User: Which sequence fits this backbone?
């Protein structure tokens, strides 16, 4: 009988989750873009709605000089810090945790409580968040990031294709399962963007679209032989933009 490593069951559970492809692929895409930005001199990384992002704990050599700021809701961030402490994980000195409810406070005001340097190049990540917010709130955050990144800013963010919200459209079983799951825990999908108009939406906020791809595109890019058995729902997207 083949011996399985201790984390095999956990791996299988994670891979079987409807959200797994989106989560793992968006992290790879974002960190590839971050690495390129660091190569161009960026030394500030702001993770908006950081959740349980682990980049600060597994920071690679190429990001050793990068100052990381994690911004998230006080309840979520508090729980994360409690779990780190309970697991004996020391918070690295290069990361700052800023507790903020961005529904009630501007991102710039929250970053004012950190060592973030306005006017210097910064890379912003906003992953797995926009679909839970109203369109107006998303556009307001785009404008705020454009303002804060005026010294040379870049943004990577995920969004839901607006087709997700067309109740007459047919959706994959994986998407239906994911939507049911998030709704059951009180965090339903709220809004999306039209991929054919996202460039214009960003331009109106002071950002220029550089790249916009779907989960299926990322699977072909990062796992062309299908070794990881990932399946896309065809409606999740990730985009990269720069401050104009």
Assistant:
């Amino acid at each position: 009988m083949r011996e399985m490593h201790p984390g095999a069951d956990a791996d299988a559970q994670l891979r079987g989750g409807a959200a797994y492809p989106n989560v793992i692929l968006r992290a790879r895409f974002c960190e590839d873009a971050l690495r390129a930005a660091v190569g161009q001199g960026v030394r500030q990384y702001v993770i908006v709605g950081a959740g349980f992002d682990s980049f600060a704990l597994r920071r690679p050599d190429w990001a050793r000089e990068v100052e990381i700021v994690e911004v998230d809701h006080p309840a979520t961030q508090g729980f994360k810090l409690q779990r780190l402490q309970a697991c004996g994980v020391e918070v690295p000195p290069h990361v700052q945790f800023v507790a903020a409810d961005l529904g009630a406070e501007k991102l710039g005001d929250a970053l004012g409580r950190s060592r973030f340097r306005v006017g210097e190049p910064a890379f912003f990540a906003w992953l797995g968040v926009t679909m839970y917010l109203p369109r107006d709130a998303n556009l307001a955050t785009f404008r705020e990031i454009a303002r804060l990144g005026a010294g040379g800013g870049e943004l990577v963010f995920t969004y839901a294709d607006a087709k997700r919200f067309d109740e007459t459209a047919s959706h994959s079983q994986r998407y239906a399962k994911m939507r049911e799951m998030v709704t059951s825990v009180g965090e339903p999908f709220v809004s999306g963007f039209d991929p054919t108009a996202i460039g214009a939406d960003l331009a109106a906020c002071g950002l220029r679209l550089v790249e916009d791809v779907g989960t299926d595109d990322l699977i072909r890019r990062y796992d062309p032989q299908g070794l990881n058995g990932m399946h896309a729902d065809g409606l999740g997207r990730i985009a990269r933009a720069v401050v104009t």
Summary: The helical segments are 8-16, 20-39, 74-86, 107-111, 135-148, 173-184, 198-203, 215-222. The mean pLDDT is 87. The two ends are 59 Å apart (CA to CA).
